[in-house]
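User: Round two. Same drill as before: sequence, then structure, for each protein.

Assistant: Same drill it is. First protein:
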Amino acid sequence: MDDSERPDRPDPDADAAEIAEWMEEDFGRAVAEGIANAVDEDDPDDKHEVVEVEILDRERGEVVGTIDKDGNLNTESEALRCVSQEYIEEGVPVLVPTTYENEAGETVHADAEVIVEPGTTGFVRAFVDELPSPFDCNSETLADLPVHDEE
């Protein structure tokens, strides 16, 4: 989609409903483009491998950066950079369901904490899940992101 097809940004004196509608249209379009670009055309089974997502600042109502599965953050937002740095350098802690046998031979179901590092399956999902408010991504995009798979 070229710039002529993008929804016009509302005037500064627009009401909240008009701004919210613009945010959803423009952000949804940007996310759809990102998903379309992320599909590996050589692998017909690779329809959910989102390589990069756009990060929205809900308070400002705009996309403030992108993150890819390798941990490459592209942003001019110092706040986003600050809250992201630790996750990019050290990975994101996530809880994964596990089962094991205890000393009595009983099967125990519990959550184990693992670190999902950049470059591994589920990093983008874990990264976006950990971002504090006001940072977020479109909920439809979040639903399509692969989760960490403990193999």
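Second protein:
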Amino acid sequence: MLALGLLGALTTQATEQRVYLVATMQLDGSSLAQSIFLHEPDITKLDGCIEAVREGRRARDWQKYHHVFRSDRLKGFSGHMQYRCALSDLRFSVWRDGPRYNRPYLISVDGQAMLSAARTSSQAQCMAQLRALPSSRQAQSFCAMSNQDLMP
């Protein structure tokens, strides 16, 4: 009986959804993008994420979901940030700012703010998978490079 209780607790814990901020820098006029997946343990509802984004943009000081967009690295190019608050049972490695955004992902945030992300072998493969999706799924999906890993 104890084993069943422990198994149930592990199953519940394994499927627990987290609130993520998916921050994406899109290079204007291209399909090139970089995304990061940020999780704050004390933000457990989408409303908290949305408010943190609102405050971070307004104050230009991210007290929650701390990150820095380095526009100086885009010399000669322009890009814009897009923020999506989403729920997922996925787990990502901790984000650390660094130069190696070498992990391509097909990312989707659906109408219910559910995040899915699948690692692909290349940006080209990601774009091919994106184009193969039904138009309704294409509208909520995109390809981006990240420096984070999906955790088991």
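The chain has a mean pLDDT of 86.

User: Perfect.
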